[in-house]
Amino acid sequence: MKDLYTQTCIECSALITRRYSTSFSLGILMLAKEIRPDIYTIYGFVRLADEIVDTYQDKNPAEQLQKLKEETFRAIDEKISFNPVLHAFQDTVNTYNIDREYITAFLYSMELDLTDQKYDRTLYETYIYGSAEVVGLMCLKVFCQGDETLFRELTGPARKLGSAFQKVNFLRDLKSDLEDRQRVYFPEIDIRRFSKAEKKQIEAEIAEEFEAAQTGISRLPANSRKGVQLALNYYKNLLRKISDSEPEELLEKRIRISNLQKIKLLVINLIRPSARFQQI
Q: By CB count within 10 A, which of 37, 86, 205, 220 is most buried?
């Protein structure tokens, strides 16, 4: 039983998750009740860093990110923080012995967002590892509940899933990343002259990663299998909509799945949880 302060901090992270991400919140509802709080705390921490580098760029983000880094590791070491999000996160990190390298890699990717980067393939893969793959590995630590053998076996599929999710996000957010933040992540592509061939190549890469990730989902513990499958199905539907769009459309608007469609997908997942792909 968590103490009142820790439980309240977890509830703060849950609120942040629900306010910022409908799709992620729906996926969490498919997880076993006992692990939902820990996934909320991971999302809350990730969202905190995202806000620094994406929303409050006029508030000396480099300094704020450095403060977050110091406060995060201090919270983990001392097992207490009076920043509610960090206190909830440290509780999960210490409970599941989450590797600090994952946290360091994540924060490094956030640092890359603060500078004008021309991404080559190596830096692109480094960014994706830190911004997405390690978040999946943190969640996998929770899913595996201390079974290190299973964790090691599922590390590869979990990384593929995180990578695919991030690349779909890159395609979905082309317009805002370019116009609002002057960011282009795809290497060796002039995004203002984004071609059909380049788009199809990225989509094929994502599809391959989805297939590799799918092999691991069936081996996840029952506590998380349905939730991860729902997330995969959501992103497959989003990729399908992106694939049906012309390159110039991605530079004009954000492709999205409506909340009604997300709920429909949730219902389908409840009825046919074993289906590998549920189209909406």
A: 86
